Amino acid sequence: MDKPNIVLIMTDEQRGDAIGGLPGSVVDTPYLTQLRTQGVYFPYAYSACPVCVPARRTLLSGKKPATHGVLMNYRVSLEGDTLPGLLQKAGYQTHLSGKLHLFPERKRYGFESSDWADGCYSSNPDNDYNRFLLENGQFNEAGLSHGMSYNGYAARPYHLDEKFHYTTWCTDMALRFIERRDKTAPFFLNVSYHQPHAPCTPPAYYYNKYWNADIPEPCVGDWVDDLPNTQNGMPVNAWRVDPSSRSIREYRAGYLGCVEQIDHQIGRILYKLPPNTIVIFLSDHGEMLGDHGWIRKRSAYEGSARIPFIMWMPDAYAKKFGIKQGTVSDLPVELMDVLPTVLSMADIPIPEDVDGISLLPAMRGEKVDRDYIHGECCRLETIGTGMQFVTDGKEKYIWYPALAKEQFFDLVIDPQELTDLAKSKEHVGRIKVWRNRLIKELEGRPEGFVKQGSLQGLKGPTPYCLSEELLASGSNLKDTDNGETTKQ
């Protein structure tokens, strides 16, 4: 059998529960629901470092953040083998349509060709979406003339014709590649949408549908005691928000509208795929959407860290790999698993320095030697924003090194993380098990997280999130979210 074509469809900031048909979900996604129910679905999928740049480095390299060295959005080149690069060496034609969010910008990282734009903002002259707008009679930054921030909660319907929307453009470019590809070679196509990341500005049909729908309000745990005082309003680019505000309801409506818009565009792609094509769908991380008074990402909570993860393939390949379609795997999985899984499906050797594992055995229903995944995130400037977590999707332990604070959640009975069990006497034994798992992950690391077999709380600023080699290139270290410096 010929090597399969691989289409990796990736959204930005899509929560694990933002797919139709899941418990509690109110979004309509007929095409993603079809892929989920007909393929293999991983409900316990996580982004181990739930921020754009480190998550994308993890996916393309197959290496955990502690290995590739970046745990926040920094402008640092990714060195070594990448998924598209390895596929290209094996004879695949590789193409990117949409967002890459790696640096230096326009570095190919193994993609032979690209229609590249790291977002729907359009000020970068090298941004192909910006070029598209200018060539079609729009002005510079027309994609942002609605006034909505690309890191804030303000939302509204899209202001231009739908044909100018970034989501439509990204799909159009993917279809153009499929039509013009070299049909004598297998292909790897990464379709990388910018949304539902802010600005949450779907076309009016989608926005109005969810604004008028009975969408749930954000959940707030009984452990939350620091909701912001919004008497004087909320900064649009805030991280902490009033979950009961009208603005957050608008944000949630725009977000869900963006998800459904992307789903319909994915339908266009599915109709055009050759029959020997495997489809993978996932996101780089989630979005808090006001839950517990937070928006955006960076946290270990389910809204931020859990992602959708679907593998779908034609029956011929399912038979070849011994996979039963329409199944749900209870294995905890992570973005680093994408590279070894794709390589194994394409019968390409997996590099020895990869941290992820091939998911083919799990998709066959075989026992896999993994009980949990480990995640972490921090800024270079201070450990005050840092977190560590371990989870199997059913229980979760979180530790904050700067605060010497821990949290524990039973996700089976409390999937919204409403009750923190860290101080529960009833759960002391389980908490100890998870704490020891985190200690095992952090033992011997240079940051000093573990001393004499116990977690060590840290105090004061320390640049512990980057390797020595990357720290040496400090002139290139800019904390960036979609090309701009941000502050938390």
From TrEMBL:
Alphabetical list of Pfam families matching this protein: Sulfatase
SUPFAM superfamilies given in the database record: Alkaline phosphatase-like
Gene3D superfamilies assigned: Alkaline Phosphatase, subunit A (3.40.720.10)
Residues annotated as domain Sulfatase N-terminal: 4-348
InterPro entries the UniProt entry points to: Alkaline_phosphatase_core_sf, Sulfatase, Sulfatase_N
Transmembrane spans: none
Family per record: Belongs to the sulfatase family.
Name this polypeptide is given: Sulfatase-like hydrolase/transferase
Organism: Sphaerochaeta associata
